Amino acid sequence: MNYVIIGNSTAAVGCIEGIRAVDTKGKIVVISDEPHHTYGRPLISYMLLGKTDEEHMKYRPDDFYEKNKVDTILNTKVVSIDKDKKSVKLDNGKSVKYDKLLVATGSRPFVPPMEGLDKVEKSFNFMTLNDAKALEKAIDSNSNVLVIGAGLIGLKCVEGIVDKVKSVQVVDLANRILPSILDEKGSALVQKYLEDKKNIQFTLNDSVAEFTENTATLKSGKKIDFDVLVVAVGVRPNTELVSEIGGEVRKGIVVNTKSETSIPDIYAAGDCTVSHNIATDEDQIIAILPNAYLQGEAAGMNMAGEEKVFDNSVPMNAIGFFDYHIITAGAYTGDKYVVENGQEYKCLFTKDGYLNGFIMIGNVSKAGIYTALVRNKTPLSEVDFDLIKDSPQLMAMAKSYRDEKLGGAL
Amino acid sequence: MKKVWVNEEWCLGCHLCEYNCAYANSGIDDMVKALKGKTINPRIRIEEGDSINFAVQCRHCDDPICVKSCISGALSKTDGLITIDQSKCVGCYTCVMACPYGCIMPSEEGPMQKCELCTKNGCEPACVKGCPNNAIVYEER
Question: Can you give the residue ranges of every domain in chain A?
């Protein structure tokens, strides 16, 4: 069996480990347009922060490819898939044949058209290790940095650089920060923390009308001078290889719970796909690392002939700024249970007898117990909700659950 | 594989396992020097209730969502044992988000810590050895 994987990040690694759990012999080829050994992509902000380095960022050990008998073709782009001949064409003119193919092409930065952006000499995205290295080279203690985008990527970038530069300003079209994972109260708390702790200046409800080399004029008329620009407005999934050959794409590549696309023998996983969010019962792109791994793993096992279903995808995020941590999961609809205490905030959302989602800020201890309730759709009738709403604990679970998981009397 | 199991009927909630865990993982030979005057940060934690208590530590899951969620590859599973390479951990808390038992927590130094069945301490699990009521056992099931 010839397995070919386009991409070399989390979904690809999940796929390799999934294949090898079933098939130790088949040939695996990984093709990536990046030149690096697989690395933890969300670590790039921690590298700027000094909490890790290129060596420690390796997502799997140095001997990973060798041990798993994987051939790598790096620094090489796949330009097209021939689904009839079952081969992929590379940008160096060569082709690679497959029996089973995984498309794990991830996403790319979305840069909206902004007048004068081409005049900005020091303009960066923040997606890849090379982006982070380039940004690191461009900044110093005199830099005034403007970040467009107050989402997960933009603000992790801010955390990574704020202590290395003179000032950081953030502009976002939305009226609050981190709108994809927080409610209004949560956004306000985290914004205030970042303003107070690191003097980060936010301009919300606004966007850039025009750039000159070192100045952004916003729609409101406000002018911001800067030396270095980071554009982190959002991302777009890399779906073209599949859409060009008639595969179903709705925003992302459409896959089933076995990670199969609409084209035989072609699978997809990770940020380039749409997943079914069990908390909202809607299809959406869930661009988080655990989702990429689990989809990739399911793809790998199915490619190798063992049925594996990944069917409990939910958005879930852990993000922190310095020592201030945030953990969220699920959807924010239903009845709310709220606890506020200074910089600590917790909101639980219950709906139809389930914990449908939660936000924890400040104190995130044992958050995974809540996450499990959301992911497993545990009926709250089986849980002492009065106990567990105060703090995540196994004491609130059914005795039979504890006996099974922790031991119990033999 | 042998794992640590707790019988909640027998757990007294005495917290000795927490102290033995903190001592075993301190790297200090003298228990008094290791623990005196310190707030312990053990990898095994007692949950206390009105009528029952029980100790909880990493279940070394068959399908470990912590390992599959770890953004740095710091968490890994070998021969059934889930360990953490603290030199790779950046303290992102994704494992705290993922662990269904609440068994991964930050160490004093920053990176996450978890029960590794005392494999790095050169002994059988210290929590089990010191349990006065045999409520915690280390065995294959």
Answer: 2-108+236-303, 117-231, 323-406
